[in-house]
Specification:
The chain is an alpha/beta fold. It folds into 2 domains: 313 residues, TIM Barrel (Alpha-Beta Barrel); 65 residues, Alpha-Beta Plaits. It is built from 13 helices and 20 strands. An 8-stranded parallel beta sheet has the order 4-3-16-15-10-9-8-7. The protein is globular. Bound molecules: flavin mononucleotide and iron/sulfur cluster (2 copies). Flavin mononucleotide (FMN) binds next to strand 14 and helix 9.
């Protein structure tokens, strides 16, 4: 029988698709709604002992050709304290009874180590199955310390140790991508006692400038700040970080920019044991995942997988150093002339971007003497009708 069950850090999930600790998780009712839409669970909005004031407005969309591809936010973290979550934890315990949904709590204590320990004990007492340690938030009630911890190997290890020591349930560290070496930081988190990592939080960014005023965006009454950027355009960075952590044998919940069931599979093939979805829910609602489980099941049946563990990490062994790739000559584009609409984008791209070798796509006419086999023509083709093939008869 094909199913989506996964064991992540010793905890059973009915599906690996989780709602990340994000603004759609205003309270436990939202986690319930998400689970009813198809999520395997949700990580609580980060719980802290301190309160934080979000600027208004705080979001700025980033678009490309009118499509929303990312969002910059200046307010990232909750003002929840454990007291206001008491009733929410009751809802989560009920959800565990009715739907078998594990409880994952996100906490932050900034640079105050005692706070991490206290919070970890508190959320464990409320029934948490996993505790996510948020050392990565750039907008944190403890000031910049959220991010400062995640950018510092030693501090990350310390937080991991302080929290893991006082609880029996597994802890995971939520990492920031704003570092040069995420692997060393992951290893330190594991050395400290965490059982895995979540990768990643948000990329520090400046989303734009209003050219009429020169104001940075998001424009908070004339000023702005570097802030948290996420959404589909960060996915390649999330995939890379997930893969490099998984290559070290570290359990990882992978995410950043997931907006489709295919993206979820990509992350699992790159080594993720569970995946998380944030912005896609903010933009499209929880129903965005409604058919993902079914689609993933169909995919598994079609490709002959009976469990997700069979595809987990399968891509890792195919990622190698640049110099170890197969350097094959005689690689050329081949146009499916039936599907070509003669828009000539490939011609322009090749002419101005590389070697002026794509002559007449409608006739699959390529100057093979000049063509360097780069695939730029394939990248820009709106029809997807160019393939790169090895043709030993040419040259
Ligand atoms: C508005 C907003 C609020 C967020 N709040 C939190 C938070 O409280 N705790 C946390 O760990 N991450 C928080 N995040 C980060 C997300 O959980 C997630 O790591 C990030 O958005 C990347 O995933 P995505 O590209 O699917 O959105 C927040 C992100 C956004 C945009
Ligand atoms: S593969 Fe590169 S060089 Fe060859 S036709 Fe396409 S864009 Fe031009
Ligand atoms: S970009 Fe694609 S569709 Fe357009 S002319 Fe080239 S091959 Fe044809």
């Amino acid at each position: 029988m094909v199913d989506l069950n996964v064991d992540f850090l010793g905890v059973e999930f009915k599906t690996p698709i989780l709602l990340s600790s994000d603004s759609p998780i205003l309270n436990a009712d939202h986690i319930k709604m998400a689970v009813e839409a198809g999520f395997g669970g949700g990580i609580t909005k980060t719980i802290s002992h301190k309160k934080f004031n979000d600027p208004k407005p705080r979001f700025q969309g980033v678009t490309s050709k009118n499509r929303l591809i990312g969002m910059h936010t200046l307010g990232n973290i909750s003002t929840y304290d454990p007291e206001s979550w008491k009733k929410d934890f009751k809802t989560l315990r009920d959800l565990k009874k009715t739907h078998g949904t594990p409880i994952i709590s996100s906490i932050t204590g900034g640079l105050e180590m005692d706070d991490w320990a206290k919070l970890a004990r508190e959320v464990e007492a409320e029934g948490s199955d996993i505790i996510e340690l948020n050392v990565s938030c750039s907008h944190n009630p403890y000031g910049k310390s959220g991010q400062i911890i995640g950018q510092d190997q030693k501090l990350t290890g310390e937080v991991s140790k302080v929290a893991a020591e006082v609880v029996d349930v597994p802890t995971i560290i939520k990492l920031t991508p704003n570092v040069t070496d995420i692997v060393s930081i992951s290893k330190e988190a594991i050395k400290g006692g965490s059982k895995g990592v979540s990768a990643f939080a948000t990329v520090l960014a400046l989303s734009g400038v209003d050219i009429a005023t020169g104001n940075p965006l998001p424009d908070v009454w004339g000023k702005s700040a570097f802030g948290s950027y996420s959404g589909p355009s960060v996915r390649p960075i999330g995939l890379k970080m997930t893969a490099e952590i998984a290559m070290e044998g570290i359990d990882v919940s992978g995410f950043g920019g997931i907006e489709s069931w295919e993206n979820a599979i990509e992350y699992m093939m790159a080594g993720a044991g569970t995946v998380q979805v944030g912005e896609a829910c903010m933009w499209h609602g929880f129903d965005v995942v409604k058919d993902w489980n079914e689609k993933i099941l169909n995919f598994m049946k079609e490709y002959g997988y009976s469990s997700l563990s069979e595809l987990k990490g399968m891509t890792l062994q195919k990622i190698t150093d640049l110099e170890k790739l197969d350097y094959i000559n005689n690689v050329y584009p081949e146009v499916d002339t039936e599907r070509c609409i003669d828009c000539r984008r490939c011609v322009t791209a090749c002419k101005d971007g590389v070697t002026d070798s794509m002559k007449n796509p409608k006739l699959n006419d390529v100057d093979y003497d000049k063509c360097v086999g780069c695939a730029l023509c394939k990248v820009v083709c709106p029809q997807g009708c160019i393939s790169m093939i090895i043709n030993k008869d040419i040259k």
